[in-house]
Design brief:
about 240 residues, alpha+beta, Nitrilase/N-carbamoyl-D-aminoacid amidohydrolase, four-stranded mixed beta sheet, 5 helices, globular
Length: about 240
C-alpha cells in the first residue's frame, strides 16, 4: 500500500483508490471448510486466522493508512476487512490528505459465498464527502448494480476481476450517476496465490495449477458522459 501510494502520488495523483479487501486480503478460493450442514476443524482454524488478520476501525492499521495519505497528501480510498465484535465486514475507508479518517462504507450485501465470512452493512454507512476534487463516495463490487447506491458515488472500489462485463457495467453507471467513476481491480496471478499458500501451509489451493491465470486487473476511469478516460488496464499493477 505504501509503495503503490507513493508511486501514484509521484505521478501527480490526488486520489488513490485500492481494490476491495486490499487489507488484509480477499479470501479468493477459500471455503473455510464449510458445507451445507457441516464445518471442519481445519476450516474453523482458517477462519480464526482470517479473523485475526482483520483490522479494527479505529486502530493501528487505520493509523498507518492515514499516515500514508498524509505523507503523500492524497485522498485515499481503500478496501479493508474490518473487525467489530465477532463479525467481519468488507469495508471501504476514506482518508483526506491530512491523514484523517473521513468515514467508512460497509458492503451492504456480501456476494454469494462471501456471506459465509462477512456480515452485512446497512444504509448508515453510505457517505458522500464534499472535497476540493469533487464529491467522493464508494460502492463495492456488485453494489454497482444497486440503483440507490450508484448515483451517490464518485470513486468505486471493486473486488478482483478480469471479466469484461465490469467495464460494460461501469460504462453504464457513470452516465446514470452523472459522475466520474473509477474502478480499482486487483491484479495477481494464480501462481502468487499458490506459492504464498504453500509457503504458509494453508489449505484450499492445492488443486490449483501454478501456471494458471487469476485476476488480471481491468481498472478503468469513465467520465459522466460514459467516455473511457483510462484503461481497462490488464498489463500489471500500475497504470
Amino acid at each position: 500500500m505504501r509503495t503503490l501510494t507513493a508511486d501514484a502520488a509521484a505521478q501527480g495523483a490526488r486520489l488513490v483508490v485500492f481494490p476491495e479487501a486490499f487489507v488484509s486480503s480477499y479470501p479468493k478460493g477459500l471455503d473455510f471448510g464449510a458445507r451445507v450442514g457441516g464445518r471442519t476443524p481445519e476450516g474453523r482454524r482458517m477462519y480464526r486466522r482470517y479473523f485475526d488478520s482483520a483490522v479494527d476501525v479505529p486502530g493501528p492499521a487505520v493509523d498507518a493508512l492515514g499516515d500514508a495519505a498524509r505523507e503523500h497528501a492524497v485522498y485515499l480510498v481503500i478496501g479493508v476487512i474490518e473487525r467489530e465484535g465477532g463479525t467481519l465486514y468488507c469495508t471501504v475507508l476514506f482518508f483526506d490528505p491530512d491523514g484523517r479518517l473521513m468515514g467508512k462504507h460497509r458492503k451492504l450485501m456480501p456476494t454469494a459465498m462471501e456471506r459465509l465470512v462477512w456480515g452485512m452493512g446497512d444504509g448508515s454507512t453510505l457517505p458522500v464527502f464534499d472535497t476540493p476534487i469533487g464529491k467522493l463516495g464508494a460502492v463495492i463490487c456488485w453494489e454497482i448494480t444497486c440503483r440507490s447506491c450508484a448515483p451517490r458515488c464518485m470513486a468505486r472500489a471493486f473486488s478482483s476481476t478480469a471479466r469484461p462485463r465490469w467495464t460494460i457495467a461501469i460504462h453504464g453507471r457513470a452516465p446514470c450517476s452523472t459522475s466520474h467513476s473509477r474502478a480499482a481491480a486487483s491484479c495477481f496471478r494464480r501462481f502468487s496465490i499458490y506459492a504464498a499458500a504453500t509457503a504458509r501451509g494453508l489449505p484450499g489451493h492445492s488443486r490449483r495449477r501454478p501456471g494458471d491465470g487469476a485476476d488480471r486487473g481491468g481498472s478503468v476511469i469513465v467520465n459522466p458522459q460514459g467516455v473511457l478516460l483510462a484503461g481497462p488496464n490488464y498489463d500489471g499493477e500500475r497504470s
